[in-house]
Amino acid sequence: MAFSGLYMALKKSRTAWALTRILHTNKSPWGVAFLSSSCPRMSVGPMEPPFTADHYSVSRLPFPDVTSEDLNFFQRLLPGRVVTDEDDLKRYNIDWLRTVRGNSKLLLRPQNTEEVSKILKYCNDRNLAVSPQGGNTGLVGGSVPVFDEIILSTALMDQVTSFDQVSGTLVCQSGCILESLNQYLEGQGYIMPLDLGAKGSCHIGGNLATNAGGLRVLRYGSLRGTVLGLEAVLPDGSILNCLNSLRKDNTGYDLKQLFIGSEGTLGVITAVSILCPRKPKSVNLALLGCESFSRVLQVFTLCRDHLGEILSAYEFQDLESMRVVQTHLKLSNPLQESAFYILIETAGSCEQHDEEKLNAFLAKALESGLVESGTVATDQGKIKSLWALRERITEALAHDGYVYKYDLSIPVEKLYALVEETRARLGTSARRVVGYGHLGDGNLHLNITSETYSESLLAALEPFVYQWTAGHSGSISAEHGLGFKKRDHIYYSKSSEAVQLMQRLKKMLDPKGIMNPYKTIPQAD
Amino acid sequence: MAFSGLYMALKKSRTAWALTRILHTNKSPWGVAFLSSSCPRMSVGPMEPPFTADHYSVSRLPFPDVTSEDLNFFQRLLPGRVVTDEDDLKRYNIDWLRTVRGNSKLLLRPQNTEEVSKILKYCNDRNLAVSPQGGNTGLVGGSVPVFDEIILSTALMDQVTSFDQVSGTLVCQSGCILESLNQYLEGQGYIMPLDLGAKGSCHIGGNLATNAGGLRVLRYGSLRGTVLGLEAVLPDGSILNCLNSLRKDNTGYDLKQLFIGSEGTLGVITAVSILCPRKPKSVNLALLGCESFSRVLQVFTLCRDHLGEILSAYEFQDLESMRVVQTHLKLSNPLQESAFYILIETAGSCEQHDEEKLNAFLAKALESGLVESGTVATDQGKIKSLWALRERITEALAHDGYVYKYDLSIPVEKLYALVEETRARLGTSARRVVGYGHLGDGNLHLNITSETYSESLLAALEPFVYQWTAGHSGSISAEHGLGFKKRDHIYYSKSSEAVQLMQRLKKMLDPKGIMNPYKTIPQAD
């Protein structure tokens, strides 16, 4: 039994913790991989997806076309930072999953808030639609235009404004890349309070706009708690400065919350103030194999009991999702085959205490027979290799064929039942049905692949998946948002009264509806 | 040196940790004390404050008076739960601090959401103003009527709906008392994610409505992160159900955030879903004495380094605030006199590890000479006694005379400079100038007492305190909210653009302005 041997080694020496079979992997966050030419599926070429306008049932709203006069205005405002070349525009028109494709003729690259303000004021006056874009790593078609909306990219707004060593408060422009920010902070003994697979490409502004979740929610909570302030440009070009850096501020309504998670439909986030936790002095990662999902849940309870405040992630993946990273990315699974795998991360301030807690937990997990194999990593390189098995599933799935993606919140006890029911329901019509996700947050990523897009497969999946989720009081989008692709499914998770109130908010802030149209909130009647 | 001896004892045995000099105190959260007859200042009698309408410069808006027809409607709707007796109404018309006094003739006590809905629909149709009230423990005059608004009390809405042992999610009505909820949860191995001095009286709905902070923010974050869902009745009587219990849900705008911290001006919160942390297995509390505020800050840095994830509170109080609890509540300070005192709480999952971390920290604090005395408590009774020294300052101040209260967020390095400047500025015209608060959150409570209310003292304090705070990019209300008394000071912390947007939100949700008028958001021009 692989784990048993390991556990004995653990008791003897710290260095023995790290399993030698952990593989070397390419450091390649999926956002980066997407844009690199080394990844053939990702290059824009013969495999270009069809235009959204042709493929989806959606009608263009009566926004005027961009004129040469408009173009002249933007070229004067942003000299050398206006893109109109069709080929250059492709990567901004097509989403990472290659499932939606806009037809924008114009990309604007402002460098600061004032430029964003002037752009939006002009667009609002002219009634031109705008699609804001960060790292374009979204999974629901929210970050690319649906028709010919002007793309407003935050890529050149990538400056750190300040970092306060005492309080851990970072203030930066919204186009900073998450991983770059994390690296910057690590040099100063801090980390970002969020982490996700797309960190190499995604922008912090996009993270806020989508209320990104990811791997650290269990420990540091959501962005609604860690974001201290933001600056946003409203659709009419006015600048709303809520960029404070205070942990507590109860002076009036908390306007920043409107923009967190509104997916660019209420304005453009231009700057962010965020509270960053200290970099943990000690990090351990355990990969465990379990024979059933009920044991995954039992291990979660055991783990919370033993690890308490040092537990920083509890992720799970099923065998099928392990196979997909082995097959397409050639990553190696250091454990024997199990029906389920669990990744448990601890992050604490005392190496010795953390080890003792983890050892006690592993001993108990072993003795009780809840896990059937396991490995532990403590050094940075090996931790990254183990994390890759979980973090790169999204990337691996993109190599497997057309991907139907569902990102669901479901009470944990019921979480895997949906995967099993979906698998049984689809039979051989799907290539793969995989389930993985942030178990500690009750967040399941259900993914189905097929060789090519299939209407009949989609019909077997929807509304089944949404109805099943709503039937279990779940959310049909836990962390990905609604974007373009899931907008009309909002009623599975929200009452019509709630949606009407959202529509009133949208109307109030964006009366002309120019900001990221066709997305997130269904059009009011 | 008191601490030195203690530290040696700590090294020898765990039981020696708790100092025998810690006193027995009455268990009396200040909210409870206020309402009890044992506390003469608190009884409604000759010391009644003047009516707000007479004492403050504020004009009644043209809401109609309550008619006998209105009364009949409410008596049919809420049989036996309509209060009109003037004496019975007094405690609901006067705030805890006895600084504001409304003149409501009618108190309604609904038991459920449907009743609240019917009340608000009727009031909105009739254009009758409503003042929602929880435990009436607010400190800014937000929880009592200004004129004759109808008081809607949540006191009878005190039922727990459900508690999920796996996820730690509590769902309850908004009138549940915070301390009762905490006791209920402790029996099941969990605690509430917030704790504050008024816990014995305040309602969870009021906590949400005011985005209450308190003693656990440092560890568990703000309510914006821990509240999973809520139900609110809008001013027109419609019920908005956002009562989900999911840790993650990104389906549209996060409407619940509108109601958190809006102080009852946008609707009435009727139910709450909140994520509760596990009850820590081990809790320690240390009270330390420091000779200067710069040392308080140095100890904070040292403490974060050593205690890391088990640090659950870092509170400070100055000598003057220690004296006030000694004088008026007869609590005993177990330490020698110091210029400053620090309360450090640890909460963790392993008694032995927590002790080791705390010991290492205390040893370092001692060796470095940063602290001059100290005591540690581990058992529940003694922990409560030490906490009382800090938690009951508000109550003690109420015995000292008229209290001018300021609740400020200020960058920690500058936090105490304001107390010193205020003290120097006021000289002998104030009875006391005290500073204490949640240092870990950058939150200072600055309180000034005088024998009676004095216009000249107020003129010396305002706008000085607000200007000073704004000059240091602080917030003029960190956690108490704006209520009636601080509403017009919002501009010290928020831009006019931000306030205008708040006014538009208010207008959208409450076009007739019936909900908690005269409060939080300045009247739109």
TrEMBL record, chains A, B:
Enzyme Commission number, as recorded: 1.1.99.39
Domain FAD-binding PCMH-type: 100-279
PANTHER family for this protein: D-2-HYDROXYGLUTARATE DEHYDROGENASE, MITOCHONDRIAL
Organism lineage string: Eukaryota, Metazoa, Chordata, Craniata, Vertebrata
UniProt GO BP: malate metabolic process
Function (record text): Catalyzes the oxidation of D-2-hydroxyglutarate (D-2-HG) to alpha-ketoglutarate. Also catalyzes the oxidation of other D-2-hydroxyacids, such as D-malate (D-MAL) and D-lactate (D-LAC). Exhibits high activities towards D-2-HG and D-MAL but a very weak activity towards D-LAC.
Catalytic EC class: oxidoreductase
Pfam families, alphabetized: FAD-oxidase_C, FAD_binding_4
Protein name (Swiss-Prot/TrEMBL): D-2-hydroxyglutarate dehydrogenase, mitochondrial
Catalysed transformations (reactions): (R)-malate + A = oxaloacetate + AH2
SUPFAM superfamilies: FAD-binding/transporter-associated domain-like (SSF56176), FAD-linked oxidases, C-terminal domain (SSF55103)
GO cellular component, one term: mitochondrion
A molecular function (GO) term: metal ion binding
Protein family according to the UniProt entry: Belongs to the FAD-binding oxidoreductase/transferase type 4 family.
